[in-house]
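[Structure tokenization] protein backbone as discrete codes

[Encoding] learned vocabulary of local backbone shapes

[Begin record] amino acids and matching fold tokens:

___
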Amino acid sequence: MPKLLLLDIDGTLLDSHKKLPDSAKKALQQARLNGHDLAIATGRGPFMINKILEELEIDTYITFNGQYISHKGKTVHKEAIDTEMLKEIYAYAEQQNHPIVFMNEEKMISSIDYHPDIDESIKTLKIPHPEMEKDFHLDNEIYQALVFCEKDEEQQYHDTFKEVDFVRWHRVSCDITPKGGSKASGIKHLIKVTGHAIEDTIAFGDGLNDLLMMDVAGFSVAMENGHEETKKRASYVTDHVDNDGLAKAFKHLKLI
């Protein structure tokens, strides 16, 4: 039975140097030849994954942790964060001196000219510090935002804004998404158009934003380099991403 393979990018497809291991690329190509379907499932936005989509010839993706989904080049689901809610979060974060970055499908824009926390976390994605544009979140649909605060400053956001979700992805940054929006809800939207049953999905990931995806997929694989919680929740834990972990998982699951 052909499987739908849902692949996280950072720490799963890309190694700790943000490179795609040759073993992973070959494994994906072989899995496709064996009849399996490939899709990306990432917290990144569409504009941040063009290179990897091209290199792997993948045309189906869940981005912004489920908020923007495309299948065979066609947008099949999108859900923006409520503009009034964003205004409130922005005003609150400004009082705490926490900058915000807003993202639509084409770009990311900062609420501030430059901030070291934005620079530190965005650099890990190999992306330059975003430009500032004052009313970007008022004039565009925003599918995901980032608030830059440390872990001990995070709880106030959960307590104050219960209509959205905050998921930490970096030491100084949290994703902001519409309530209940996740890679898991993204999978449910996606399989409606791909025709796969949920039992025939396999999720591969390493981060906290992969937890719900692991719960909903038919089978789940965590990378050895992943978060402890993710490894606990997965059906199977493979080797480190830097040690051909993805290719080893594909072999273990007899996808190749």
Observations:
- The two ends are 13 Å apart (CA to CA).
- Residues 4-78+181-252 form a domain with the Rossmann fold fold (CATH 3.40.50.1000).
